[in-house]
């Protein structure tokens, strides 16, 4: 399902291609309106292409590159090859019926990230959840969601976790978890005990770092909502801050917003217990509350 030979994902590829088209257009001193006219389309279509928000017609991309002064056919062919990849369905396509539109972009960006840093307030991060823990969370909405869709969402969540074991450049996951999330027994005490043991095992993985914000740390910089900071190995892709709420997701990429959340994350990492203490902290919680 996951495309091991191309971990970038269609969304990230579209953003990379769109950024290249924008730079070529600006270097040629051509307006979006003029570019749109060239491909018999609108200025807003060019804007959406440059932001990576639409799929690409190969003829349009080739015409635009020629308009922008492209004379190297090998480079044009390379970009067209990337466009073909970007137009293919994402790895999560089989689960599409169980996915809200606003989360689909996140899945592609998560797959493309080189570093995933997150702060969690109430829950264990999705990339580290056990099957039973994930089921207990998703069943909270039962009554409004068909059981078959819940099963699909569970399988999707477990499929997401394969990114950490990817042979080609797996991302680093660095997560800070509020201690409250480790005391909230979703699914009952047995499910939570197994989930905590899974976190202890995850601490031994070379590309996973887990920190806990203890109750006795008092007020801290992450006192608001949980968030995820995605960083990419591709210079064409800017960092993205992602926040999720009940009915949607918010993507922040403005420098001022990203800088504010980066600063909050760095403060959290200082205020949280160091990663070397995480296994002892979780073992103590299991002993005191889940034995």
Give keywords.
6 strands, alpha/beta, six-stranded mixed beta sheet, 12 helices, single chain, disordered N terminus
Average pLDDT, rounded to a whole number, is 90
> Which parts are unreliable, with pLDDT below 50 for 5 consecutive residues or more?
1-5
Specify the helix fraction band: 40-55%
Structural class: alpha/beta
Shape estimate: elongated
Q: Supply Rg.
A: 22 Å
Provide the β-strand percentage band.
Answer: 5-15%
Written overview of the protein:
There is one protein chain. With 291 residues, the protein is α/β, with parallel strands linked by helices. It contains twelve helices and six strands. It has a six-stranded mixed sheet with strand order 3-2-1-4-5-6, with helices on both faces. Helix 2 crosses helix 3 and helix 7 crosses helix 8. The longest helix has 18 residues. The two termini are 38 Å apart. The N terminus is likely disordered.
Topology summary:
Elements: H1 10-27, H2 32-38, H3 43-50, H4 58-67, H5 73-86, H6 101-112, E1 113-120, H7 131-138, H8 147-160, E2 172-178, H9 179-183, H10 189-202, E3 208-213, E4 227-232, E5 240-245, E6 248-252, H11 255-271, H12 278-290
Helix pairs in contact: 1-5, 2-3, 4-5, 7-8, 10-12
């Amino acid at each position: 399902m996951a495309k091991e030979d191309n971990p970038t994902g269609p969304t990230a590829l579209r953003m990379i291609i769109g950024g290249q088209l924008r730079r070529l257009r600006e270097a040629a001193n051509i307006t979006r309106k003029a570019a749109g006219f060239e491909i018999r389309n609108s200025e807003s279509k060019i804007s959406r292409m440059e932001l990576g928000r639409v799929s690409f017609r190969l003829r349009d991309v080739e015409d635009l590159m020629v308009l922008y002064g492209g004379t190297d056919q090998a480079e044009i062919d390379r970009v067209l090859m990337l466009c073909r990849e970007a137009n293919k369905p994402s790895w999560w396509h089989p689960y599409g019926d169980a996915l809200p539109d606003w989360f689909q972009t996140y899945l592609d960006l998560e797959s493309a990230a080189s570093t995933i840093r997150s702060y969690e307030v109430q829950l264990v991060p999705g990339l580290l959840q056990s099957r039973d823990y994930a089921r207990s969370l998703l069943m909270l909405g039962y009554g409004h969601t068909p059981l078959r869709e819940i099963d699909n969402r569970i399988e999707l969540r477990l499929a997401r976790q394969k990114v950490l074991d990817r042979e080609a450049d797996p991302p680093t996951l660095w997560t800070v978890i509020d201690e409250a999330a480790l005391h909230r027994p979703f699914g009952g005490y047995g499910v939570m005990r197994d989930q905590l043991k899974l976190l202890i095992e995850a601490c031994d993985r070379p590309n996973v770092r887990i920190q806990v914000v203890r109750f006795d740390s008092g007020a801290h910089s992450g006192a608001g909502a949980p968030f995820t900071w995605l960083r990419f190995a591709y210079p064409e892709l800017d960092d993205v801050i992602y926040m999720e709420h009940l009915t949607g997701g918010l993507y922040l990429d403005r420098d001022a917003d990203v800088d504010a959340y980066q600063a909050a994350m760095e403060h959290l990492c200082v205020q949280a217990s160091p990663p070397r203490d995480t296994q002892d902290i979780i073992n103590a919680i299991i002993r005191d509350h889940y034995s």
